[in-house]
Amino acid sequence: MKSLSSSAFPRRVRALLATAVLSLALAGPGFAAETVDINTADAETINRVLVNIGPSKAQAIVDYRDEHGPFKSADQLAQVKGVGLKTVEKNRDRIVLKGSSGS
Fold this sequence. Notes:
Distance between the termini: 65 Å
Largest sheet: 2 strands, parallel
Radius of gyration: 22 Å
Protein backbone atom coordinates (compact mmCIF):
# COMPACT_ATOMS: atom_id res chain seq x y z
CA MET A 1 0.00 0.00 0.00
CA LYS A 2 1.30 3.37 -0.99
CA SER A 3 1.57 6.01 1.72
CA LEU A 4 0.69 9.60 1.10
CA SER A 5 3.00 12.37 2.06
CA SER A 6 1.53 15.02 4.32
CA SER A 7 1.51 17.57 1.48
CA ALA A 8 -0.01 15.24 -1.16
CA PHE A 9 -3.25 14.60 0.72
CA PRO A 10 -4.34 18.23 0.99
CA ARG A 11 -3.58 18.77 -2.71
CA ARG A 12 -5.76 15.81 -3.63
CA VAL A 13 -8.58 17.04 -1.41
CA ARG A 14 -8.33 20.52 -2.92
CA ALA A 15 -8.37 19.05 -6.42
CA LEU A 16 -11.46 16.96 -5.64
CA LEU A 17 -13.24 19.95 -4.11
CA ALA A 18 -12.36 22.15 -7.07
CA THR A 19 -13.71 19.50 -9.46
CA ALA A 20 -16.94 19.21 -7.45
CA VAL A 21 -17.45 22.98 -7.37
CA LEU A 22 -16.79 23.29 -11.10
CA SER A 23 -19.22 20.45 -11.84
CA LEU A 24 -21.96 22.12 -9.80
CA ALA A 25 -21.32 25.48 -11.45
CA LEU A 26 -21.58 23.98 -14.93
CA ALA A 27 -24.72 22.05 -13.97
CA GLY A 28 -26.41 25.22 -12.67
CA PRO A 29 -28.82 25.59 -15.59
CA GLY A 30 -29.89 22.00 -14.95
CA PHE A 31 -31.34 23.12 -11.63
CA ALA A 32 -33.73 25.63 -13.19
CA ALA A 33 -36.91 26.42 -11.34
CA GLU A 34 -40.05 24.48 -12.14
CA THR A 35 -42.48 26.37 -14.35
CA VAL A 36 -46.26 26.61 -14.34
CA ASP A 37 -48.72 27.51 -17.07
CA ILE A 38 -50.96 29.98 -15.26
CA ASN A 39 -53.62 29.51 -17.93
CA THR A 40 -54.12 25.79 -17.33
CA ALA A 41 -52.71 24.93 -13.88
CA ASP A 42 -54.89 24.23 -10.87
CA ALA A 43 -54.56 26.22 -7.65
CA GLU A 44 -52.52 23.50 -5.94
CA THR A 45 -49.88 23.57 -8.70
CA ILE A 46 -49.74 27.36 -8.77
CA ASN A 47 -49.31 27.38 -4.98
CA ARG A 48 -46.49 24.82 -5.16
CA VAL A 49 -44.51 26.44 -7.98
CA LEU A 50 -44.85 30.18 -7.47
CA VAL A 51 -42.97 32.01 -4.72
CA ASN A 52 -45.01 34.08 -2.24
CA ILE A 53 -48.27 32.64 -3.56
CA GLY A 54 -50.19 30.73 -0.93
CA PRO A 55 -53.32 28.61 -1.35
CA SER A 56 -55.76 31.55 -1.23
CA LYS A 57 -53.82 33.65 -3.78
CA ALA A 58 -53.44 30.60 -6.02
CA GLN A 59 -57.20 30.07 -5.91
CA ALA A 60 -57.72 33.79 -6.62
CA ILE A 61 -55.55 33.39 -9.75
CA VAL A 62 -57.68 30.46 -10.94
CA ASP A 63 -60.90 32.34 -10.15
CA TYR A 64 -59.68 35.44 -12.02
CA ARG A 65 -58.73 33.30 -15.02
CA ASP A 66 -62.14 31.59 -14.99
CA GLU A 67 -63.91 34.97 -14.90
CA HIS A 68 -61.72 36.96 -17.32
CA GLY A 69 -60.26 34.32 -19.62
CA PRO A 70 -56.64 33.31 -20.12
CA PHE A 71 -53.80 35.60 -19.11
CA LYS A 72 -52.11 37.27 -22.05
CA SER A 73 -49.00 38.25 -20.08
CA ALA A 74 -47.42 37.50 -16.73
CA ASP A 75 -47.88 41.17 -15.77
CA GLN A 76 -51.64 40.65 -15.91
CA LEU A 77 -51.31 38.56 -12.72
CA ALA A 78 -50.93 41.86 -10.85
CA GLN A 79 -54.63 42.47 -11.51
CA VAL A 80 -55.46 39.56 -9.20
CA LYS A 81 -56.26 40.80 -5.69
CA GLY A 82 -53.29 40.13 -3.42
CA VAL A 83 -50.74 39.66 -6.21
CA GLY A 84 -48.47 42.62 -6.89
CA LEU A 85 -45.87 43.40 -9.51
CA LYS A 86 -43.06 42.49 -7.09
CA THR A 87 -44.50 38.99 -6.78
CA VAL A 88 -44.82 38.76 -10.56
CA GLU A 89 -41.16 39.79 -10.94
CA LYS A 90 -40.01 37.20 -8.40
CA ASN A 91 -41.84 34.52 -10.38
CA ARG A 92 -41.28 35.67 -13.95
CA ASP A 93 -38.94 32.77 -14.77
CA ARG A 94 -41.48 30.28 -13.38
CA ILE A 95 -44.51 31.56 -15.32
CA VAL A 96 -45.42 30.27 -18.78
CA LEU A 97 -48.43 31.14 -20.91
CA LYS A 98 -48.93 28.15 -23.22
CA GLY A 99 -52.67 28.03 -22.57
CA SER A 100 -53.43 31.51 -23.95
CA SER A 101 -55.01 31.91 -27.35
CA GLY A 102 -52.08 34.06 -28.48
CA SER A 103 -49.52 31.28 -27.99
